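From the pipeline queue, job 12 of 40. The input is one protein chain; the requested action is below.

Action: predict structure.
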Amino acid sequence: MPTLDWTVAGENAAGHARPDVVHLINPLWDSNGGGDWRTYEMYRMLGRHCPVHIWSGFSPATDFAKRCPVRLIRPWLGRFPIGGTFIFVGAYFRMGHWFKASFPRRIILIYNTFQPDRLEKAIRRLGAWHRAPVELVYTSPLLRKLSSYPGRVIESPIDIARFVPRSAAPRDAARFRVGRLSRDITTKHHERDREVYSALAAAGVEVRIMGGTCLRDRVGGSAAPALLAAGAEPAVDFLQDLDCFYYRTSDQWLEAYGRVVFEAMACGLPVVCGRRGGYADYIVHGVNGFLFDSTEQAVSLILRLRDDPALRLRVGRAARLTVESMYRGSAWQQKQTFFLSFPEPQRA
């Protein structure tokens, strides 16, 4: 991640006082959850510039408990964040009454899943308890478009020094491998994905799905894809062993951003994704990835990539450059500086 430059000790590049402490609040209960990983990456990123603490009111997943110190919110013991900047990563978990006694100087709510009712409740609840206004951050342009509240778009941070293309040359068509990863729940998979996998198997294409054990009743037989539990392999290793990344979620679940899509792009993979999702605003069809509207289009695009290694290489390289442009440079620095400063004080 890029380093932010401070002009004066205690101030950021805009001349605003930087926070004495940042509190990140998220359950961290799912080692494969996008919001959980966003919390961890923000901890790493912002922690380079000021003290940062992660707080959870739940038992954090073992993976996160090993990676970083997680402070458990226990109001009856007087353990909860107080003062500084509060960043709630997500509106999908319960915000306890301890917040009434926390006296934050700044309140930021990151809206990262399409749940309008929970967003409404969170804004109302947080805004009622303190004088500091609730500043809203959307994880994608799509979420901002679907909401009536003002706010800025700041994407979920990804460690693009870890998610990198494999060094091996592209495999030939006979060894072409397609895959995807996600949380292991049915809403992360489209109702017609079985048809995609069947068509690919008939064409001799190997398919691996990490986070796919929930599909055992949907797909089966000798031509079934390899179904792995979520987190069965390190995400980087899994992605680097693919030639193409496929992604589409259920009609019952709107993918607000699609962090895994950008991790795949960072690994230099051509991505073939359903058009309905927050990631679609970043994909230029045929340039840095592919978008489809139907099952038939998805199969056709994947087979086209199988048969054209040069196309695979060109689109994969463009995908990597896209992610680099998103997470490097002055624009990304400015987005992160937003979390590291206090707004100008209001004058009477």
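Job complete. The radius of gyration is 21 Å.
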